[in-house]
Amino acid sequence: MKQVSFYDAKPYDREAMAGAAGAEEMQWHFHEFRLNAQTARTAAGSHAVCVFVNDILDRACLTGLAEGGVKHVALRCAGFNQVDLPAARELGMAVTRVPAYSPHAVAEHTVALLLTLNRKIHRAHNRVREFNFSLAGLVGFDLFGKTVGIIGTGKIGRCTAQIFRGFGCEVLAFDPAPQEEWARQHQVRYVPFAEVVERADVLSLHTPLTPQTHHLIDAATLERLKAGAYLLNTSRGKLVDTVALIGALKSGKLGGVALDVYEEEEGIFFEDHSDLGLPSDDALSRLLTFPQVLVTSHQAFLTQEALHEIARVTTTNLLLSSRGEPLLEGTIL
Asked: What is the pTM of this model?
């Protein structure tokens, strides 16, 4: 029975993994803390580690894991910017991910954030719980007929675009590798990045974090947006320059901002800070003061279907790795 060290474990993780086929063949060591160079020694004796988006697997961490006998890094997420892949290859470690656990989960959460923010549902909910049934300040706008810009048309971006088409929106898209047949089928039009930014009433980000997309939304890009445009980000926090975003909010340039990710979310998201607040993060604290900002804590993936698929793919790869068998096609980095 091979040992797996599981990091940043939450109750829903444990429940999902316990229900996955073959999970009983592994010896699980669940840790609530995150994996990094300082905690890598806790994986000594494990065949594999199972990690999430805010674990930091840089060269130092991977070296420590390799010294402890770890052969496999299993990411239970799609993104992999937190892993030094060249270092992993040098150390002879397999790295796998879950490339498409549920694009519908993230796409639906993206649209839910917009609907909540635009129609002031969160504010209305808080009011009526205090028996305040006034409608003052709750005016929104119709999505029908609006122009939505989609940056990145992978599986999540395509799902999101199709939902917006269902609302009767015009959808413009940008992707370095356009899906032309899909676009024709769903009446989505690919245009240059600049045109998407300048024409969008709602701009939604669905692109991975790479050196080229880091701070894709910076001060210059924000300046080119329509006055009153809405910005949605359920992809990666570092796509957006937070300081520039705060500047655009202070100037009144943006009508609304809905975020499920934040560029400095490590150590903040997934944890309860209600007793201490956020003394070490002035930028996020400032963001949360704007009435036209809605933030959720990286929960777009959190559906029963997505958790089941994450557990299935992750457990399958861990079992295959422990047996020395080929890993699932499409999951290897």
From this structure: 0.91
